[in-house]
Write the structure tokens for this entry.
Amino acid sequence: MKEFYDLNLNIKIIYSGSSQIEIKSKLKEHLVGRVRELEIQRLSFAEYCDFRKPISKKQALEEYMIFGSYPAVALAGNSEERELSLRDIYQSYIQKDIIEFLHIENVNAFNKLIILLSSQIGTLLNINNLSNALKVSRKEIEKYILILENTFIIKSISPFFKNYKKEITRIPKVYFLDLGLRNFALKNFFPLDLRNDKGELFENFYLLELINSDPYGLNTINYWRTTNQTEVDFILSKGKNNVMAYETKWEKTSTPKSFYTLKKYYPKIKTSIISKNDFIK
């Protein structure tokens, strides 16, 4: 969702859902030089907890990671209603509006790409593997990924690097901007204690928290990885001299070895481990 302010006319325009693609294209034509863009994301975890009072933070975190953070889904009465709400959003927005408005020709490959990306959150994006799996060109895969990002379905983040020879410098990682849509694509709404992807879901969840804390998009979010696969989940830059490194762990553990390696390259970067206890206590 995005919110536009016409600074001369003092008009606020909010768009979401099925009409947002078309409205965005029209606004760009008529408000050049007179508009400030503010991205309004789906619910943050704090907002979700307010929507779902009086449930516990532990229950709210599980719901958020399974059913996502659309307001309508959060307000649904039970799990079945949440799944139906997600089906409606997925079918009306992704299956209808995006495909029809942007004239997706290979609908089958587009749909299968969403499923493949859903199963690979937080991993390096291998365009060649996706191209081979879907039997379409690399150029077409790149086009579809760009469409999914520009229509607020996915978010890609680039590596953090300073031209050291051992750092990865190009390959992005992809996450979903709503975990409910991600889980719907995989048809997986099992509780967290029956899942083997809790770590990936929690990593994606924390990225959404970082995005929600920066509505004007002034900060930069990257990941860090070396060629020998030493990795830190997120590097948050709030300017040249204010950089934080975050490693997400569903269950908090000892300081990861990757922090020690990172410090050798960037001794001034502060580090922090983020676990579920940071949200449910």
Remarks:
- Confidence is low (pLDDT under 50) at residues 1-19.
- The chain has two domains: 1-40, 43-280.
